[in-house]
Specification:
It is a single chain. By secondary structure, the protein is an alpha+beta fold. 38% of the residues lie in helices and 24% in strands. The protein contains three helices and eight strands; from the N terminus they run βααββββββαβ. It has helices spanning 15-38, 47-67, 132-145; strands spanning 4-7, 74-77, 81-85, 93-96, 100-105, 109-114, 119-123, 149-152. The strands form two sheets. The protein has a four-stranded antiparallel β-sheet, covered by helices on one side. The protein has a four-stranded mixed β-sheet with strand order 7-6-5-8, covered by helices on one side. Strand 2 (74-77) and strand 3 (81-85) form a beta hairpin. Helix 1 (15-38) runs antiparallel to helix 2. The longest helix is centred in the first third of the chain and has 24 residues, at 15-38. The protein is elongated and about 65 Å long. The two termini are 34 Å apart. The relative contact order is 0.15.
Length: 157
């Protein structure tokens, strides 16, 4: 089985959008740092200035990593592992085939039951569902190739 990559993003961003995100993020961080330098003496008296600076730096950081393409959510299925990034800020989780006990497939989510008594849930959105079936098919092939228990559950609405 070859490596398969599926984006979990709702919107695809092009190079122009990512360039603007990167520039805007850098501007936000610079403005926050300049504001911090100019108003350093008044920071002790007002907590709202700290909140503003932390917000600007955090938002700028998010824009920078989005512009660099590091905030994209995805699932990557390889022959013996699954890389899953469900959050824009956190690094991807690696689920090795020998650590997965069972996989349950629902209509709009996947549940990975690990041998260490923990679970990992991947929820699909309802807006763009064109990736859901190809991901489920790849997960079925992965489970079959690695002798992992697989349950398909039908949800009644």
């Amino acid at each position: 089985m070859d490596k398969r990559y599926y984006s979990l993003e709702v919107n695809k961003s092009n190079k122009l959008t990512r360039s603007f995100q990167l520039i805007f993020g850098i501007v936000c961080v610079i403005v926050a740092l300049v504001w911090l330098a100019l108003n350093f003496k008044s920071l002790g008296s007002s907590g709202t200035l700290w909140i503003t600076i932390i917000f600007l730096i955090g938002f700028g950081y998010y824009q920078i990593i989005s512009g660099l393409g590091k905030a994209e959510k995805f699932i990557e299925i390889d022959k013996d592992s699954i890389r899953l990034k469900r959050n824009s800020f956190l690094p991807p989780a690696v689920l090795n085939a020998d650590e997965i006990e069972k996989i349950e497939i629902f209509t709009l989510n996947l549940i990975f039951f690990m041998r260490q008594n923990r679970t990992t849930i991947l929820r699909f959105g309802t807006t763009y569902t064109e990736n859901v079936e190809p991901i489920k098919d790849s997960i079925k092939k992965f489970a079959t190739a690695n002798s992992i228990g697989l349950d398909e559950k039908i949800e009644e609405f």
